[in-house]
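Still learning. Any example?
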Amino acid sequence: MANKIVLAVDLGAESGRVMAVHFDGQSLKLEELHRFPNTTVNIRGTLHWDFLRLWRDIQAGIDKGKSLNPAGIGITPVEETLSLSGKPPRQRPL
């Protein structure tokens, strides 16, 4: 079986990262390509994820992984399901 590589995006409360996941047919190997802080913005007294900033960091990580010719990309928000219609509120206190 040929080696397969996918890019994975992990978004957590404190930080995010873009990982390359290498599969050789028997085992997985993780390689961190880009790590970035998940800072918040205060909108009318409520903390929200700064989704536009996160998107720029996700794109920067994907750009770093392009040379690996990945088979695909997966995004997993750890804290909640992200809505593109607005800035999701932060669930954990600072």
User: Anything to note?
Assistant: The two ends are 46 Å apart (CA to CA).
